[in-house]
Fold this protein.
Amino acid sequence: MQHRIVVLGAGYTGAHAAGRLARRLHPDDVRITVVNADPDFVERVRNHQLATGQDLRHRPLTEVFAGTGVLVRQARVTAVDVDRGTVDVVDQDGADQLAYDTLVYALGSTADDHGVPGVAEHAHHVAGRGAALRVHERLRELTAGATVLVVGGGLTGIETATEIAESRPDLDVAIAGSRGVGDWLSDKAREHLRGTFHRLGVTVHEHADIARVDEAGVLTSGGERIPAEVTVWTAGFTTHPIAAATTLRVAGTGQIVVDDTMRSVSHPDVYAVGDAGLAEGAGGKPLRMSCASGIPMAWRAADAIAARLTGRTIPDKTIGYTLQCISLGRRDGIVQFVTADDEAKPAAVTGWAGARIKEFVCAGAGWSVAHPTVMVPSRRRRVTLTRAERVR
């Protein structure tokens, strides 16, 4: 009887996990099914480009996994029962239920409104393909001189604000951060960022704690009104509520608590990767929600699953960071070198060279998803252990 592995989500982490498992395990012994609501792989790290009308390559998941033995099920996950080992889904034919022996939970995250009134009603976001396309449609309606405010001073906010400002120089673009904008960067990188904002005409509002969003912009907790005809909310991400509705042990963030192999600490048949999992990285610090964390988490989970199923030793590895890549439009960028625990080093690459490195990293991540079984040597081993032995 084949061991049933179900992977929920086919973003960077889910796609990498499924492809790596297909490369590690013998197809006679396992059946790997990927469940994803969208028929295509979505390059989430490029959603700010999508929001400005740039054409992105379509990668149908059926093509991505062609010839790998991985089954693709286009459906929306509605519930998970980790005690019975089942997943409820809905597709064009209606409701269905999938059974699993091992579950890889990679449903990712969406925009976090932090409970701020008016965000859901009056703000846009770029956390998903559909949302980014709605931003594009709204920007197309704006005439010269219209105001656009990006809320959030982190990586997503910086990339979104600069992309909009570069593609639409006729608009009045601003960015607001609850602390500083890009304040974690090195002195060199911050100086370059300030220069780029000035060059693109982006107004910066720092220490702007947003208390409310309405049709005319935002109001800060200090009573300042920042006008905007379009508000784009990029102030962090939150996990989907499905995991929290199960008996899995989850953190206050809604993330599934996992060990250093990405295995649930409460349910040994469940692994969580990417934004959905709360794992420790270098220095004992939680891994941040990012592609830079998610792909290594997927590799780690897939290798651990394969090792446990085939009775082999699980590789010992701590996930750490080397750099952060920030695009500032299509012709400018920052590559900030960081310590393994994600603290900025003095060194950074800026300007055209930074943009080229960022594009190389993004293109490489997309290519690796499109070629899921090329990234590791083919060692398709046979499943040897019983279920009781696997969950120990």
User: Anything to note?
Assistant: The first strand starts at residue 3 and ends at 8.
